[in-house]
Fold:
Amino acid sequence: MAVAPPLLEAEDLAIRIGGRWLCCEFSLTLRPGECLALLGPNGAGKTTLLHTLAGLRPPGAGEVRVGGKPYAAWPGGTVACFRGLLAQQQPDHFAASVLDTVLVGRHPHLGRWDWESAEDLRIARAALAAVGLDGFEARDVLTLSGGERQRVAIAALLAQQPQLLLLDEPLNHLDLHYQVAVLELFRREAASGRAVVMVMHDINLAARYADHVILLDGKGGVEAGSAAQILQAPRLSHAFGHPLRAVADGVRTFFIPD
Structure:
């Protein structure tokens, strides 16, 4: 059986801010159908790493490739049709309807003077339904709760229809029900042939939904590998600076503070 070509690759990647190395050289390969979780303590560089993988900042060393090409080889803004980024914060400076906000995700697919088509509207409405916000199309985003606004941002990303989804804390502001619903949604997106990278804080949700993990320790150390390899109590305890204990229930293994 042929192996699908990678959607995201990093080769000998290292990231530096000022005089501080956030992570030393490591490599990764992410293929269609796979989910990768970025874990580590606050300030370890998870968002900076995600932005580097998104092509928003150059690495200190090494190379990032998406769809088999470095970002510099993608003409114009065409890479926005291939990879999408969910930012950690969703600032709303002006009033806008929920539907218009989600339609922003269609902009990479439009020509300079194009208007959204009936198909664009269908895609946007389907994205809202996927996050449980059908019927919200006419609402002003400024009237939404934090969790509702986060789901609108996820819908806009879905409307963009990228092959590679890069998510910075996608569970922000979401209650438990929607945390699980959103993670199930992204697992389905991966199963449809996409790849997903998520900055996460919950180790146990990462263990449940991620195939691969990159673990930053905040001191320049990085470990990358399968979830089973990286999610081990000694590794996690070292990275987070607090002893953790693994507890198994016969189906899953959970990590709790010791």
Observations:
- The helical segments are 46-53, 98-103, 118-130, 146-160, 176-191, 203-209, 227-230, 233-240.
- The longest helix spans residues 176-191.
- The chain has eight helices and twelve strands.
